[in-house]
Amino acid sequence: MRSLSAAVTASCVARTSGSPRKARASFGVQSMSTVTFIAPPRGAARRPLRVRRRNLHCRDPAPAMIDQTPAARAAGAPMSSNRLAAETSPYLLQHAGNPVDWRPWGDAALAEARATDRPILLSVGYAACHWCHVMAHESFEDTAIAGLMNELFVNIKVDREERPDLDAIYQTALALMGEHGGWPLTMFCTPEGKPFWGGTYFPPEARWGRPGFPNVLRRVSEVWKTERGKIDSNVAALLDGLAQNSAAHGRGTLTADAPVEAGRAIARAIDPVHGGIGHAPKFPNVPALRLLWRAWRRSGEDTLGRLFAVSLDRMAQGGIYDHLGGGFARYATDDAWLVPHFEKMLYDNAQLVELYCEGWLATRRPLWAARVAETCDWVLRDLRTGDGAAQAFAATWDADSEGEEGRYYVWTAAEIDTLLGRDAALFRAVYDVADGGNWEGHAILNRTARPDPLSAAEEAILARCRTALLARRATRVPPGRDDKVLADWNGLMIAALARAATIFDRPDWLAAAREAFDFVVRALAAGDGRLHHSWRAGRARDLATLDDYANLARGALVLHEASGEAAYLDRARAWMAVVERHYHDPLGGGFFFTADDATDIIARARSAVDNAAPNGNGTLAEVLARLCFLTGERSYFAAAEATISAFSVDIARSPLGCASLLLAHDWLQHPLQVVVAGSAGDPAWHSLLAAARRAPLPAGLVLAVTADDALP
Known about the structure:
The protein has 26 helices and 24 strands. It is α+β, with helices and mostly antiparallel strands. It has 4 domains: 2-246, Glutaredoxin, CATH 3.40.30.10; 258-399 and 482-670, Glycosyltransferase (Alpha/alpha barrel), CATH 1.50.10.10; 409-475, no CATH class; 671-712, no CATH class. Helix 13 (346-363) packs parallel to helix 18, helix 19 crosses helix 20 (546-563) and helix 21 (566-582) crosses helix 22 (616-631). The chain starts with a helix and ends in a 6-residue tail after the last strand.
């Protein structure tokens, strides 16, 4: 499909070099004046796409910050009101005052496009995305650019967290054009919503090798009006690519040691100095690291354990971690995990809590236990949201505050000296606070150069310093919080909190997980045992995806393991029945991302590949395996086996990208169920249960059974 991208428009493929901030992007671009439309051969063989969204995840191509303060906005063009004002998504509401005539995705917007024969400009982003804010300020708040958009297009805004199904379709379409995906996603579509060309961020005028957004708008509109046949060819090619990308590629079987072999492949991709997979920009890639851990525990190979440890250590010590408030940022822009892209996501932190729990079980490293505790406490302090009766967890914290990326988190040496007094010298030496800073004149706190624990007295001083700095930071304007409750991301955090609670004996974490689960079951109920995907301000909306059911069912089973309550097991079983009824692919096997009664999408995605969160088919296969071992019903085992078999070709082609499915395969090959039976009043029973829960058991279930319980 590379020829399609070259033919459709200017390429916008990010390539990084130089420092993590000052030279983060240069772009190879084809001139808009040379655009022609040439579709690739129909029916050409294609491998399933792994949509790579790493090189432009809201990453800065600019050395200077954009002033987005209210005062700066007030000095510009006056804002108007558009059709987003009645929405609940914080991201859509951020754009409700734009002069762009934004519409939410829906039948009305598509009908307007058909009635006026205008193409759709689809803009997809999320509230915590820095470069979504930049493009909004530069283009969507500019009356001249907005006027051009309103004249030439029907403009639709989508929150990718609210509609992950739409985002998945159009990100895949962009990948079929040969481009790296990311946000903001800018996609041009027919009035039926069929894509024909797209990109990500565009500046208001040509710079950094990118065409100016007004020129893009004019050129796309011109081609729409004068070369419709070529657009139709491209639409057909993209739809064919979307269909082939979701098609089955044959069934097969995996060997019992496939997870270990994949773990060795992951180890070969690990940066031996800084940890993590590959080079900048660096994402935690938790599914792959969990598979590396599993391969280490299965094989006993020291190299795998060492590379796993260096990855977790460097992340825990780097600037990607918030050393004052807890929690991890989404990714780092450099190899050494120093410079984060500062937004914090619920799904990242949930996965990292479980990863550090697993790591601690095998090593007992105090640093990893501390990061689990600090991150869980941050989630409970800053991400809880609800309706007054109960609370679940909000989706994100923004990268920006007061119009600047990272402003909330960074410090100057002078600030540290003033606040910490005689303790400043020690703190600055340990946390890399130099006079000139380590990032644009400021310091991103990290312990990369001084990772080893100091004396107890010195560590006490550092703890006192962190407390003082956190208190001062609390007086700053905080980043914005997107307080949507998303079913899939809450499922990840419910499982993480419940598992951490059993390992570290934290009943408060378990209580928070139970409360969040109860909230989701009640607030996101859609009738007939089904769920909605998101909730905010008293309103649940959009049908749940496969990931919603898979992650929540896994959370339910971890809660069942932690509490012994059968209601959680029953809920997981009920959700699996819904998934089988509405998401199963009867021809190719496995499960679609969307339900069979979803009506406003142009394709049903079916994928084996992990992205920032675990793949839904992989998580579902693990849930089915767990259900077999918890209930004794072999039908669940067969369903898990069939799901993995349906994607065996994909796994063979890209084992690193299919870590979740390989983890599920390991559950089928090497399950271990530990039942601790006894009396709830017996201290010895409690001691034995705690020991079992703290054992590093790959694919292990630990169940507490008393005299009144039925054995599984």
